[in-house]
């Protein structure tokens, strides 16, 4: 099953009270709540309020989009990890998105990689005990900036509770982007969906329908459930969400039909 949803950071300037009805009216099914503005760490009442508003609208909480990066002193990291887990629990999030450090894999020191790996493994084990999955942000400026480094990190952590997100790297054509997805597909839990081309220009999702048909076909063939979450829309405009969500649902339906 491919479950259509949205990342709340798509509309950073809107409060949850406005994002929830937008998502529901657009026919989406779940929301990844951002841990920077919408569900700030260390504010359990806010997380619980957001969960209730989400569920009352018939939507599910897909995940907590945290900004935990496994950096700083041991004490600083431990404090951040603690409030992140608490926020996810109060939010009712089945998954926490995390970032693998703050350095590109080619530039990261062995010490940085070892520290991030060790802390990520510990965090993944703690989250597992609370019934919460951990997913890596697939992004430049981290140890998951390339397929090879992402796979190495997943293998080094070696915990079944650790998955990865996927999104097309900036500037890749459809076939090159699909190659990166195929390489990590067995670890992928969640997809961030957007249409940027040729670099970071934000286009309607339909403008890269070839790419997303291929992505959803790959996921449908995997036989596993995935969340597919709109992350960026043209001009950050709330009024285009219904159109973008309709395109997303159509592409998902086409992939499901082809898989059958």
List keywords for this structure.
isomerase; carbohydrate metabolism; Xyl_isomerase-like_sf; 16% strand; Xyl_isomerase-like_TIM-brl; 8 helices
Can you put this structure into words, describing what you see?
This protein is α/β, with parallel strands linked by helices. 45% of the residues lie in helices and 16% in strands. The protein has 8 helices and 8 strands. The protein has an 8-stranded parallel β-barrel, surrounded by 6 helices. The longest helix is centred in the middle third of the chain and has 20 residues, at 110-129. It is globular, with a radius of gyration of 17 Å.
Compute the separation of the termini in Å: 12 Å
- Computed over alpha carbons, the radius of gyration is 17 Å
Helix content: 40-55%
- In the predicted model, the low-confidence regions spanning at least 5 consecutive residues are none
- If you average the pLDDT, what whole number results? 96
Strand content: 15-25%
Shape: globular
Main pleated sheet? 8 strands, parallel, barrel
Number of strands: 8
Secondary-structure element series: EHEHEHEHEHEHEHEH
Strand order of the largest sheet: 1-2-3-4-5-6-7-8
Number of helices: 8
- Tell me the structural class: alpha/beta
Domain Xylose isomerase-like TIM barrel: 22-249
Protein name: Sugar phosphate isomerase/epimerase
Pfam families: AP_endonuc_2
Organism: Candidatus Brachybacterium merdavium
